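Both lines are quoted verbatim for reference:

——
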Amino acid sequence: MRYTSAHTTGGAAAGAGRTAASGEPRTTTVTRLSPRFRGPRGTGRATALGAAALALALPLAACSAGGGSKAPTGGSSSSAAGSAPSPSQSPTVDPDAYRRALTGALRPLDSALRTVDGAREGGALDTALDSAARKAETAADALETVAAPDNALSGTSQLATALRALGQDLRSARGSGGRCATSPRVELDTAHGPQSVKEAARALKALGYDTSLRLPRTERAQHRRLANGAFVRDGSRGGLGRLTVNNGTSSDAVVTLTRGTRTAFSLYVRKGSKATVRSVNSGAYTVYFTTGEDWNGGKRSFTRGCSFEKFDDKANFRTVRVAGGTQYTVLTFTLNKVFGGNASTSTVPPGEFPS
């Protein structure tokens, strides 16, 4: 509903609202608007539809209550339908089958090691060492592919690694055949491979798996020495010459004098000592000397820490008769380098050193 009212102002106050041209009074119209009220539409129709819906819902509810079928709930499913079957465990390796495989892999190596144990030092021992080294590597290959029980997996891997190290040590222990050659059995005594094999074998034996592996015998390093001034080799001496050797090195030494291709004599001089040879025949000699540790009398050589040298100048011994007597040569050789020394030395290949 719209309400309209009109107000007319006049008098003195109204003069302010007149126009300058006409002086007529001005009328102002004010319009007020208010929202229109509407009643709800279709009220009767909605009531009828609601009654019909209620009538339909009642038979459905009754059917649901009596039909016995239930809608699935959102809860957990039954154990029979929801639990997945557990995976089947892999069968355990038969310990007896593993023992047979272990024995088969190690038997050829065990036989080769027994041959090493009984071989004489030299070519026979070197050949046996080569054969055993190959068998050790073959056994390691076999163990890396063998099926082992769970409790023996680590020990089997440890034994395979130890056998490879043993093969390398067996090859390294072979004698060089020359001078200053340490015995293969001494080399094996300080090698790590045999010790690693023993440790791996003990670990498997503690689990009930016997390796049946016999390692060859070894020898401890020796420290053989001759007495100071002892002759390693002595020829015919009948002159008046005199030779003194002063060994100030940290190793024992053997000094050898030769004339041409023949050895006149060889003298053993311990470290920090000196020795003298008398009755040296007249002549020009080449002076060789070797130093080292552990003198092997059979090979006439040291077995460890060897060096082979010679003096560049020859040693000249002369015996001359003079008025009132005989004049002869006295020489002193110092093996260690000294300040103000007047003799030079050169290295000699071991094969060229006189025996």
Summary: The chain has a mean pLDDT of 80.
